[in-house]
Specification:
One of its GO terms (molecular function) is homoserine O-succinyltransferase activity. Belongs to the MetA family. The chain is an alpha/beta fold and 319 residues long. The protein has eleven helices and twelve strands. Strands 1, 2, 3, 4, 5, 6, 7, 8, 9, 10, 11 and 12 form a twelve-stranded mixed sheet that branches. It is globular. 41% of the residues are buried.
């Protein structure tokens, strides 16, 4: 089954050209089924690029999914046309009374700024709190993962001496091999990272409500889950396109930052060589498993606050 998106969303044409099955909203209205409702809070500057990346991953499921796009505030964007935001994005005030099966919050280029100094930090906290009572399962990506671990669990984020940039080998934790989110995963796999900060693995290992599912000897923490299965924190970027790290690297060079060459990305670690794509199958499987086992299998058919509260109580009693 496909994802359901607005007929004129730019991502639609891109995904059709990639032979990905999507369904225009006009056609989906005639199907008598209960699709999953997934909300995406897109914090990235290039919103069209990021929404396309995420929709590509969400489309790889047998489930029909209604996707809605959310923006954090109404400030003008330097990288996304106002017409696009007005046409396809909703404000929090428009969705706050709704309930959703799944919720994805993207990263943001804020890795070197203290959370309390982020202009929309209070709004971000409000939305994260709202997700507890209005969403079955939430996935936080990169900066959002650090922000949520800080907000919900008071965990510290540490700045690195140098930006972590590249594609790194990761290992599934022995204790997590039977976790539904990791079904079908190889014991070792690759995933991209692009960040200035980290939450230490030891902090998660010492927290009673969280578990490390995947980490890396070099990149550190990668995938963390709350033990009730309703929150997942991904510190990397499984959604990245093949060229995304290259674009970031050359952007930083143009800005005079003198970045390190991304690790394990270019053939022979030479930016003049083609880049190697080694993470996309894992990224697809991660999102497919999340939708199947932690959204579809858990979500109440009648999606409302009362049923989500009952779901939370059931999880609490089973822990």
């Amino acid at each position: 089954m496909p994802i359901r998106i607005p007929d004129s969303l730019p991502a639609a044409n891109i995904l059709r050209q990639e032979n990905i099955f999507i369904m225009p909203a006009s056609r989906a209205e005639h199907q008598d089924i209960r699709p999953l409702r997934v909300l995406i809070l897109n914090l990235m500057p290039k919103k069209i690029e990021t929404e396309t990346q995420l929709l590509r991953l969400l489309s790889n499921s047998a489930l029909q999914i209604d996707v809605e796009l959310l923006r954090i505030d109404d400030r003008p964007s330097k990288n996304t046309p106002k017409e696009h935001l007005d046409a396809f994005y909703r404000s929090f005030e428009e969705v706050k009374d709704n309930c959703y099966d799944g919720f994805i919050i993207t990263g943001a280029p804020l890795g070197q700024i203290a959370f309390e100094e982020v202009l929309y930090w209070e709004r971000m906290q409000t939305i994260m709190e709202w997700s507890r009572s209005h969403v079955t399962s939430t996935m936080f990506l990169c900066w959002a993962a650090h922000a949520a671990l800080h907000h919900f669990y008071d965990l510290l984020r540490h700045l690195r001496e140098e930006k972590l940039s590249g594609v790194y080998e990761h290992q599934v934790r022995q204790a997590a091999k039977a976790h539904p989110l990791l079904r079908g995963f190889d014991e070792y796999f690759f995933a991209p990272h692009s960040r200035y900060a980290e939450v230490r693995v030891s902090a998660i290992d010492n927290h009673p409500e969280l578990e490390v599912l995947v980490d890396s000897e070099i990149a550190g923490l990668y995938l963390v889950g709350s033990k009730d299965g309703r929150q997942f924190f991904v510190t990397g970027h499984p959604e990245y396109d093949p060229n995304t790290i290259d674009d970031e690297y050359r952007r930083d060079i143009a800005a005079g930052i003198e970045p390190q060459i991304p690790e394990n990305y270019y053939a022979k670690d030479d930016p003049n060589n083609p880049y190697k794509v080694t993470w996309r199958s894992h990224g697809n499987l991660l999102f497919t498993n999340w939708l199947n086992y932690h959204v579809y299998q858990l979500t109440p058919f009648d999606l409302n606050e009362a049923n989500l509260a009952a779901l939370s109580q059931q999880h609490a009693e089973s822990i």
